[in-house]
Amino acid sequence: MHIPRAGGTALGSQIAQQTRLDPTFYFSFFGLDSSKGRNRIVVERLRKGDADHQALMRNRHFLESRVIMGHFSHDLATILDDFELRFATVVREPISRTISLIHQYTLDAPDRRRFADFPVPSKSREPDAYWAEIYRVLAANRRGPIPGLLPHENLMLFNGTCRMIGGAPLHTWVPAIDFARVRERLPLFKLALFERFNGTAGAMMRELGIAVDLDERCNHAGIGDPAERARHARYYGAPEKVLDLVRAMNDDDLRLYELVASAIR
Asked: CATH number of the domain at 8-263, please?
């Protein structure tokens, strides 16, 4: 289960590279597998019985795969109820993850600078003005949803890790978090930490019986905390008032992260 901005693309790349002798072993809903893009579907919108689901049930690559990856929640177990699924995911510190996602969601083309439905200054050329406008947008929509974002994009910004582990359907906006359900489902997951990527994700792969090594030789970018080697300022330079607002928007994710981080040694 690829929680956005938590190293899922890097992990999927390693799985694809290290199991390439078996082209059906790994299936990516992003198409980042041996299909070279042909498997790509928007899994966040996948519903049992819809056209994408029917096509998936005819896809030989999917049916023969051992590992699948994408932006789905634990709700996938109800959509693919004919299969035996074991879930694993990498969890990232929520404020860093959410700020990175906001930055990713912002278009910064010369003729189109927007975050959701809102015009914003250039995040690269006018970072202070950009973050001031982002603060205004978030403050006006602090309980969500933010106009102009798809339902799953909104869910990812507001306690997204809880929603994915708790099994929220990602095709519709649901404002409330049932934290008790999240805690109940947490033991169903093998877990790793983004901040200790190689060590914890490597251990997770071994627990799942997946022959993928994560070390300095094959994944230098995953040594220690990958965010410490990013080519940008911490939190992309977001001021403290933005960080405080994002903390308030992700209070359940912060509680969850403390639980997960304390349990992973």
From this structure: 3.40.50
